[in-house]
Amino acid sequence: MAHEAVSSSSVTGEHHNATAQPENTTPKANLMGMSRAELEVFFEGLGEKKFRAGQVMKWIHQYFVTDFAEMTNISAKLREKLERISEIKAPEVVHRNYSKDGTRKWVFRVGDGAGSLVETVLIPADDKTGARKTLCISSQVGCALDCSFCSTGKQGFQRDLTSDEIIGQLWVANQSYMEDVEIAERTRSVTNVVMMGMGEPLLNFKPVVKAMSLMLDDFAYGMSKRRVTLSTSGVVPMMDKLSEELDVALAISLHAPNDALRNELVPINKKYPLEQLIAAAQRYIRKDGNESARKHVTIEYVMLDGVNDQAEHSQQLIKLLKDLPSKINLIPFNPFPHAPYGRSSRNRIIAFQKALSDAGFVCTIRQTRGDDIDAACGQLVGQVADRTRRAEQWKKKVAQQGEIIRSQG
Ligand code: SF4
Known about the structure:
Largest sheet: 10 strands, mixed
Keywords: 4Fe-4S, Cytoplasm, Disulfide bond, Iron, Iron-sulfur, Metal-binding, Methyltransferase, rRNA processing, S-adenosyl-L-methionine, Transferase, tRNA processing
Helix content: 25-40%
Subcellular location: Cytoplasm
Order of helices and strands: HEHHHEEEEEEEHEHEHEHHEHEHEH
CATH class of the largest domain: Alpha Beta
Region (Disordered): 1-29
Number of helices: 12
Pfam family, one: Radical_SAM
Bound molecules: iron/sulfur cluster
Binding site for S-adenosyl-L-methionine: 199-200, 231, 253-255, 334
CATH architecture of the largest domain: Alpha-Beta Barrel
Radius of gyration: 23 Å
Number of strands: 14
């Protein structure tokens, strides 16, 4: 990353001598996460034509080249200059795990190292072709919103990811399919992206929008806007802002059909209750054009045993969504250590789905994938270090509850 480029001598204190020239300590610019507009300004600043931006973007995001020397349509002089002042750097992969069912997971170290780890999961379609590959991308280290069923929320918030670190996750996932492939033969494998990993993407707005603009840009990933989805827990004002800046599909982490329950499960609901959230989703869809990605919103609903999975909840949900074109995705809960909830039974989930389908909704049940590598939804936290007060408080609370249960027993 541009902000972490430090010369090796400044880290180790080695190589000092009286005659050495002072080193250029200006951090190198990381071209990985720059939008086309930013790259054009960058090249103009070097006295070059704007079209260099598109050329370099293709090398980075379509041919997965990080070495300027391999960029054969760029003059040797400009390549040398780029080498001196810039770099192309994805976040460091510290762990990767490929499941038998085709799911792939990466753990990245981001920013200043130590405990700043995030995870990215690639889920292939559960069909024979395996052609659809959906990447679930993280936008923050940890999360401030503390949804009560979410393991990431229990870590607390550590920091926002940069656009390099966000788009770098997509770069690494694509690149993992072409390690031994000749440059000219390289193609992109990831077909769909969901901003649904760690963090609330709308609370890291600018870097997320910049990275998503690269996903859509024909000089970078050129993905269809219907295949790029941002998932929010309901940061209402930023939903309106998103609708002004980007045309992508929208998903809402709803999880409860009434305010009292949603206040408990998704605490940001206290600030932006359901009436406001549904109205914002309707506004988002209304900004429609014929080719828009905004024909409907996807409603995510985690199935928590005895909490939000009863017949009354499905009826409330039907009422709540009656004027919002939506597809509903039921997510069997994946319990994490000390989770305060259990997963709804298969029968309960099917009954819930039937009630919604009978009312005319398209309602699917998410397949649990990648269980053998802890990549299933809600398990993203994995071994990621938690160093925040919330993590400590959570552990304390769980220990206290354990004591209460033991003393009651
Ligand atoms: S569900 Fe999403 S918004 Fe809620 S705490 Fe987890 S990561 Fe944050």
